[in-house]
Amino acid sequence: MNWQDRTIRLIGDDKAATLRDAKVAVVGVGGVGSAAMEMLCRAGIGHLVLIDGDAVAPTNLNRQLISTAANIGQRKVFAAADRCRQINPGISIDVHDCFLGKSDNDKDLVDNCDFVVDAIDDVPAKISLISHCLEQGISMVSSMGAAGRTDPSKTALADISRTFGCPLARTIRAKLREKGINKGLTVVFSSEKAVSLGGRDENGGRAFGTISYLPAVFGCFAAAYVIRSLCGITEKDKS
Questions:
Q1: pLDDT tens per residue across all 239 residues of the chain
Q2: What is the DSSP string of 158-212?
Q3: Which residue among 83, 102, 105, 124 sits deepest, i.e. has the most Cβ atoms within 10 Å of its Cβ?
């Protein structure tokens, strides 16, 4: 039996073929990105572009789908690609072991993609990628802050201009306004107030913890937006 049988029963052969023909970039394959990547892979996306310059660390084990005790130290993009190929051996994957925003030309890695999932933590790199995609007309969805939260019911998709309660979204809005961008970016965000139990990170900011499921919820929201957008699925289709 076709491994995509249950997907085809839901969306039909034509939309399943659309997903097989699609090329989607996931930038950052940590807690949010690895969940988005896996949902895209299991939905039948035929071509993934995976971009991340980090290695699997012990602290990743509590939330990142690609992380296991056996692959600590492995480069994340290769761990991510291995996981996708175990799900769908026929998938096409471009692997880029780098952090976007470190050179003038690295954003070209997402050119010619049908969609981009932004799961980057670094604000300057995030702004750089978002600006590039909006300027080039590349469809995308961007993840805001998932750390410090525990309530999945507060997670939502919205235009960046309609976000609230998320400090990262507030920062991104301000940075984009400096570039003359006020709306037109779909994001996953949480309106739940982030909680920190204290301590500082390596940059002197508040150190927020994360729980196993919340980044994955963000990743599922992002993947759902990509899949529904590519397939042209609307609420009207379900009535």
A1: 799 999 999 999 999 999 999 999 999 999 999 999 999 999 999 999 999 999 999 999 999 999 999 999 999 999 999 999 999 999 999 999 999 877 767 789 999 999 999 999 999 999 999 999 999 999 999 999 999 999 999 999 999 999 999 999 999 999 999 999 999 999 999 999 998 776 665 555 667 899 999 999 999 999 999 999 999 997 555 44
A2: EEGGG--S-HHHHHHHHHHHHTT--S--EEEEE-SPP---S-B-TTSSB-----S
A3: 83
> Hey, what are 215's tokens?
């980044």
How many residues does this entry show for the chain?
239
Q: Is 121 strand, coil or helix?
A: coil
Q: Measured between alpha carbons, how far is 70 from 55 in angstroms, rounded to an integer?
A: 13
Beta strands in the chain (DSSP E): 23-27, 47-51, 92-96, 115-118, 140-143, 155-159, 186-190
- By the 10 Å C-beta count (0-12 exposed, 13-18 middle, 19+ buried), 156 is classed as middle
Residue with tokens 């390596």: 202
In the numeric block, the tokens 């051996």 are attached to 89
**Distance between CA 65 and CA 68 in Å, rounded?**
8
Task: Kindly list the distances between the CA atom of residue 201 and the CA atoms of 97, 145, 198, in Å, as whole numbers in the listed order.
Answer: 24, 15, 10
Distance between CA atoms of residues 108 and 111, nearest Å = 5
